[in-house]
Amino acid sequence: MAAKTKPQASAKPGNEFLSAEQAANRYGVHRASIYRWAKEGDFPTPQEQETRKAAGAGGDA
Question: pLDDT, tens digit, for every residue of 9-49?
């Protein structure tokens, strides 16, 4: 399969974050391409999402 054209990376405030799998589906490429593009500097690098634990009614706070 021929390589797809790399997307133009433009981070804009307020845009949603996509998983590598979601980005691959959006651009019609394999997930490995997303990681390769990020490594080459042609795509935004992955960002870790902050996780928050919420205490339920009976949970420890």
Answer: 555 555 678 888 999 999 999 999 999 999 998 888 877 66
11 found inside a domain: no
**Residue 28 covered by a domain:** yes
Q: With contact defined as beta carbons under 8 Å apart, do 43 and 7 qualify?
A: yes
Query: Structural domain of residue 34, as residue ranges?
Result: 18-44
Cα-flanking dihedrals φ and ψ of residue 32, to 5°?
-60, -30
pLDDT for residue 47: 72
Residue 20 CB neighbour total at 10 angstroms: 16
User: What's the domain count of the chain?
Assistant: 1
- Which residues, in sequence order, are CB contacts of 17 under 8 Å at separation 6+? 47, 49
